[in-house]
Amino acid sequence: MKMKKLTSLLLASVMVLSMLAGCGNKADAPNSEPPASNPPASQPADDNKEPAPAGKEYDGVTLTMWSMWSSGEPQANVISEAAAAFEEKTGAKVNIEFKGRDVNKVLAASLEAKDNIDIIEDDYKRIGTVYQDFTMDLTDMAKAAGYEEFSYQCFTDQSIAWCGFLNAITEQPNVGGIFYDKDAFEKAGITAEPKTWAEFLDVCQKLKDAGVGPLAQDSAYCDFAFYHTLVRYLGEDKIEELTLNGGWSGTAAEQAAQDIIDLRNSGFLADGAPDEFPSSQNKIGFEQAAMVICADYVTAEVNGNTGREINWGLFNYPTVEGGADNGAAYMGANSLAITSYSENGQAAFDFIMFLTTGEMGQKLADQAHQIPADSRNTAPADLTGTIETLKAAQSPMTWCASLSVNADLKDTIKSMCTELFEGKYADGAAFCAAMDALYK
Length: 440
Description:
Blueprint: H1 2-28, E1 62-67, H2 74-90, E2 93-98, H3 104-112, E3 119-123, H4 124-128, H5 139-144, H6 147-150, H7 153-163, E4 169-181, H8 182-187, H9 197-209, E5 213-216, H10 222-234, H11 236-245, H12 253-265, H13 279-285, E6 289-295, H14 297-306, E7 312-315, E8 328-338, H15 345-356, H16 358-367, H17 386-392, E9 395-397, H18 410-422, H19 428-437
Helix pairs in contact: 2-16, 10-12, 12-19, 13-14
């Protein structure tokens, strides 16, 4: 009986102490109990639990691009690949509408109507002139991306000259000059590319002595070849003035024409030049000519036509003494712009950078056989020298634009340029007199 009473007293004491201890904990840490939905604070974290997936940068964003390429072309294939990779990386869906080369026939009206377009692709001059009021100022985004470090300043400067701001990012640059067979130069003992007209004539003589026609010339490009010489002596603005109003005689145009006549009289044109396109330029592939004045696509044309992989090089058209524009080079580009009303300008810009630089930019160069828009990338082997020529060019030269401004005379002037290479005119003065006769 005594033992039972003792046991009961001990149990009662334990219960009281437990109650006192519990009351003391709650008083010291009010509201310390975690919500029922959370594990106790003392419970260890589950290290194997997967974290919630983070959203991608442009989840929910949809971009629409109107492309100047047609579906199935190499450029279109790379653009499609870039769109898929960009969506995987950023979450932004890029809808590409391949409109083909005639995109310019509908683009201006669509931009004015503010159709659902974020990115447009066309000739950079049309973007800078015809479409400029409907394009976004990309200056700040380009600066943040370090665009100046790997782009071609000549295109940036031209965009700003047209618009007052940067509104186009280069996608497919073009450059012209004198493309040449490096192996032919080596066989003739030529160790350096000519920079001046005197050096160019020396190169022509060495090639002739080695049994190779120095300069290929097709009739289709006679105006383009002569235009290079005219620009050196006169500059494009003066050429335009003469084309519109006449007054060729007594100007430096006489010496420009004389230079072409001297090339012919010295035997520096390939046999048969000027030929019907592409017969003369193909002579480079048959080792019968060494140089041609053209744009970068000529390398693929000659290689394809003749089945020979020529070891191509490029140098800018030689300078002339006292020239008005010795730093010009023919340049053109297909470019990309963002519509001024796009609601996703930064995402659109990031896609343009994704497409034209790095891995995708290199794919464009390789698969579309073009000069890379990213100068850090590598040009195809037959376009060696194109990146350097573009970066060194001080001013852009158009494709005979100043010889074409007079709609009534442009076809006649083009024919007279061919006649100049054919040897019709006794000297430069006779050519300019014939030009002036067109205005009487």
